[in-house]
Amino acid sequence: MKVKIGITIYRVEFTHSPNNPGFMTNVFGRVRDFVGMTMCQIFKQCAGNDLLRASCGTAYQNEADEYNKERGRKVALAKALESFSKKHRTKFWKAYLAR
Predict the structure, then answer these.
(1) pTM of the model
(2) With CB atoms 3.0 to 4.6 Å apart as the test, which of 11, 55, 90, 91 could cross-link to 42 if both were Cys?
(3) Is pLDDT above 90 for 57?
C-alpha cells in the first residue's frame, strides 16, 4: 500500500507470523509469551527508489487469542502510526480502508 503526503511517498508493508512462538520483554522487565505476531513497517521512499524505514509497529498474539489477520494488521498499523501527526494518520487510515 502506498500513501502520498505532500511530495513524500510512503510504503506500508505487513508481515504475518501466526505460528511463530516467542517472548517479549516490556519496560518493567516482565516477560510475556506470544504464539504469533503481525508487523507493520512504514517506509519513506527516497531518491532512486531507495527505502528508508520511517516507523514500525507490532501486534502480538496471545495464546488465548484466535488468529485474525485483519485485526493484527489494524493493531500493528495503529502502533506504527503513533509517531505521525493526526492529519497524516488519517491519510494512512483512509488509504488502508480503501485498499
Answers:
(1) 0.86
(2) 55
(3) yes
